[in-house]
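Request:
Um, any thoughts?
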Amino acid sequence: MSYRRERVWQDTIAIIVSMFHATDQGSVRQSALEIVSRPYAGALVAAYFDPDRGFAGDLFDGLDSEGLLADNPSDRFTVDDIAAASLLDVRFGPQAVRSLLRCDSIHEALSAVSASARLWDATPAELAQADNLWGLLRAIPSVGRTRATKLMARKRPHLIPIVDSVIAKALHLENETWSPLAFVLKEDQLRRDIDALRPEYVDSRISTLRLLDVLVWMANSRSGSAVLTQTQVGAPPARIVAGPGTK
């Protein structure tokens, strides 16, 4: 069986499974509201964008003060895009890199996705173009939901949210990726509350979606750097870190 046929079969199974594990939009909304309203939310976002903390910060978006990873054209994937996504703890194998940099159909699909659309008011046609690109990226060996959303969020930060295992679990997204968030973010007040978390030193071009994924990840990640920050800002740690003398 070819890889593409195997991928189609896997996606078919995923659709069938999703019928029994549909995302509850009410749970997504409640989770987002709760996380955004926590008193330490702003401190977590600020820590993520502090270059001295060791997180990706605005380097992922190519917007850091030194202009690093700034090669981010709207119509094709670049080495900088791959490097930026890799900052978020994912790896791309040789076959994936070749496909991302050389595949004309992927670049054409990317070009067709609106660069100005926002997730919460995107039209069905705009979402359909994003779905088309999504399908092509998912057909690349080793590119699953996490890698695909990180690549697409880099190119269309106002339309595509990053969804990894931490964010999916915290927001109860189940097998769906962006449609539940599109519904939840139609609430003007929630978007205003998310945008209010932006530190003064963070570029205004960092999207609402990016601020949300940063907050959710920082509040729920079990990585050492995230847990240390959670403890420092008074957030409940996602895991207990053993100290000296602790068994």
